[in-house]
Specification:
The chain is mainly α. It is 39% helix and 7% strand. A three-stranded antiparallel beta sheet has the order 1-2-3, with no helix packed on it. β1 and β2 form a beta hairpin. The longest helix has 12 residues. The protein is flat. The two termini are 14 Å apart. Bound molecules: zinc ion.
Length: 121
């Protein structure tokens, strides 16, 4: 499963239990020793170096840059990929949405929540 390929995350048994129950969402960090960083500008959260969207879905810095950080271009933004191009953009999102009907026809189920768009290159 490509979504959980960071070894440290998988090595933690608590996290494995968490994965079983709640696929692809952010762990509650209250009783786990996770390093947590939050961007005060866009609200993005890094847990042990993994970026998550505010919705709790795993994300990539470059996509965050294209969708949020490059738009706001704020000094306060802590995204290391801010200003870089090549990630997800609203134009790409729009193209994806326009093609969503076709994709759903092919796959049978909506795949939006499974993160196929943000996790695959
Ligand atoms: Zn930011």
């Amino acid at each position: 499963m490509s979504c959980f390929n960071d070894v440290e995350f998988l090595a933690n048994k608590a996290n494995l239990e968490f994965i079983d129950h709640s696929f692809h969402t952010m762990p509650d960090s209250s009783d786990l020793s996770l390093e947590r960083k939050e961007c005060s500008k866009c609200g993005a959260v890094w847990l042990n170096g993994q970026l998550y969207w505010a919705t709790g879905v795993k994300a990539k810095e470059l996509d965050l840059a294209g969708l949020v950080c490059n738009q706001t271009d704020s000094e306060e933004c802590i995204n290391s990929k801010k200003g870089q191009k090549g990630g997800d953009t609203w134009e790409k999102r729009l193209m994806f949405l326009n093609n969503l009907d076709k994709i759903m026809e092919q796959r049978g189920t909506p795949m939006w929540d499974a993160g196929i768009y943000t996790d695959e290159n």
